[in-house]
Amino acid sequence: MQPLKDPGRPTRVAAVVTAAIMLGLIFAGPVLAQDGESPKAGLLQAALVGLGYYLSNSPWLAGNGGFFGLYRPLVAGLIVGIIFGDPVKGAQIGAAINLLYIGFISAGGSIPADPSVAGWVGTALALAGGLDAQSAISLGLAVGLLGTIIFFTRMSVDAVFAHWADARAEVGDIGGVARMNWLPPQVFLFIITFFPATIAVYLGAGVVSDAITWLNTNAPWVLRGFQIAGGLLPAIGIAMNMRFIFRGTVIPYFFIGYLISVASAGAVNIVAVAIIGAALAVLHVTFLGARPMQPRGAEA
Amino acid sequence: MTDMVDQTVTTTPAEPAVSLTRADVQRSFWLWTFFSHANYNYERLQGTAFAHAMTPIIRKLYKTPDEITAALRRHLVFFNTEPNVGGVIHGAVIAMEEQRANGADIDDETINGVKSGLMGPLAGVGDTIDQGTITPILLSIGIGLAAGPTAAFGDGNPIGAILYLVAEVAVMTSLAYFFWFQGYDRGREGVTALLRSGALDRLVVGAGALGNLVLGALAFQFVHVYVTLTLIVGDGHFELNELLGQIMPGLLPLLFTLMTWWLLTRRRVSAIWLLVAYLVIAMVGAFPFFAGSAVDPTTQCPSILHEFYQPDCIPPPPAPTP
Prior knowledge:
The complex is a heterodimer. Chain A is mostly helical. Chain A has helices spanning 9-32, 43-57, 62-70, 73-83, 87-100, 115-129, 133-170, 174-218, 220-232, 234-245, 251-263, 270-288. Chain A folds into 2 domains: 9-237, no CATH class; 248-300, no CATH class. Chain B has 2 domains: 2-213, no CATH class; 230-313, no CATH class. Chain B is elongated and about 95 Å long.
């Protein structure tokens, strides 16, 4: 039985700090807006992003289309790009943000950050602010930390509906138990996901783009810092995944993969690398078997 | 007529009185696939979802209010596993409920024991397979295609996102379907045998080899670390970054990634602190200590850490060794 994990101090501290910065930006927005004319998100666009964020957490696309699909910034970025009329840029930004969450694992009812809100809201804000993909990673990081608040609210409140299901079970109401599993939780989930995300995009788009314009003229080094961070932060996402697979006899493949790219200066693209990897995986399992790499759970 | 039917049932217990059709088990599978996390909560986790998935089974197997209430209660308890691979538990439990409804001696403890005994191990194996290997591999491919533009990899291609979505849904759903029916067809003994057989271990190791290779390529594509320190020895100027590149092209990003892994795994540093620390390092690196703050960022490099692909600010990219 997995222990139920508390959000943890780092998450809470970081979420509070980001919330303060975001709120500060919203209040500072009118001051930062110098030209007054900046690309903003329409209400419909913002609502579509909010809807997408809700759907990614909902059961309506099944776990595999939701949690394994729309929940990922890569997919969310493409759709947000379509909503804002630039699918290529959207997918680029989504992919860049997704680098942070490539090793994302939700286990035992705990998430270290919320990739979905980073993908949906983060991409929308980055598009509105005209950020390049590499700089958008920092924005996605900040928004993703905020999203954990929504997750923990949901996990706490939903326990109530389990007791409503108990009550239906006592009277032998099969349909009632089924309904308690989806109807009240989904109404609640819609309220706590759709509205915050919509408001964040609708109000935030202008604020973020104003803030970036202001930084561009007054403190360009901050934007440069975002770009540098865009080169450092992916190491964390990759290392998070390495916690799971960088072990035992398969460790050398990491170096082989890296060196294939170095030696070809990146000319061997990722699909080709994956095909080489599949071939090596078959050889490895055939000749070495499963023996030396111990599969372990989320608590690596 | 009804009397006769009842009599045959009681006299020949070997003949199943109520049996589930393939469609019932499939209906249960789809309910779980869709609603496994609909009411995810700290108290029961997937508890109510398990009961939800069992509703077609309970409806078919049990007729009296007491039996129905008992069955619903039985499946409303705490439950948490990985939803795709873990479906093997549901399959086995459905098989047990079917036997129980037909008079087999299976009590609540046995069913609860199977659920609570298997959910932990299968959460571990399942998370390793689904979230730890298959998803990152497919994500790496999708990200590698969709991201860009980078100096080395050219323009981004949004097909990467679509490719990921289609492949992920197809792989995960077929995996879940396979495990669900493995559980139902083989029963609880079969599940234990499957766990012991080592087939899952081979899958984990094979996927681990593939995953590592792809992850290595991804690290080269996206981790960019530069130092712009210049060593002045006599009349000669040596760019530190160039010197490191001569030892091995791409050495610095590789070491940086390995250091991050070491900090996370061996030193158990929280990922959140690490994210914040790297952001601060980047900001400090970008702060113009060595030049006025009014420098145009597109033409000058007043930082101790370079970024990658600004035209006039590029250290030479790692050249392939001839």
